[in-house]
Amino acid sequence: xxxxxxxxxFLFAFIRPRSFLRMFNLIDIYRLPGHISLEDGLCLxxxxxxxxxxxxxxxxxxxxxxxxxxILRGLKNNCELHCVDTWQNEGMSEGLTxxxxxxxxxxxxxxxxxxxxxxxxxxxxxxxxxxxxxDFLFIDGNHDYEAVKKDIGDWLGFxxxxxxxxxxxxxxxxxxxxxxxxxxxxxxxxxxxxxxxVYVAQKI
Length: 204
Hints:
Number of strands: 7
Helix content: 25-40%
Low-confidence stretches: none
Shape: globular
Strand order of the largest sheet: 3-2-1-4-5-7-6
Largest sheet: 7 strands, mixed
Distance between the termini: 40 Å
Oligomer: single chain
Number of helices: 9
Radius of gyration: 16 Å
Strand content: 15-25%
């Protein structure tokens, strides 16, 4: 752990002691390979923990399971998590490679009580046969503006009114911010907060 990361954790513990205790219980997931920071992971865990009984969560873009682990750690045992990904690593810096085995192994390592339901394919193909309401939608797939815009257009209609929609990498240089800001301007979404690089919104 770098000195910068250690100082950030110390500062967080001082400012938000209760959240720090939960963060401490996420260290095993944080150590998994992936592009989710501990602060981002805590945000996802807290959102999933706020879900009511029998809630349904959809994650678009699961990569090697790090973000999936953070979501699973917060969910109640009677909730469902559906993961949508090709697991072919498109758009990632490492280049094309099959990451599904790594994903499966990492989910096994964290001792999840809920096993995610797998939808292997592109989000725009998976949605064609989707017919269930969603309580929490996490969009972390292709970060190009047109791709994020399409995920919003394809999936937002299934999110319950007042449901949570979160986006990863909103504060990073990519197309996520532009797509999210336009959805907010169109009054499709209402901003709740930004935590780390995660933009949390509520469906209007």
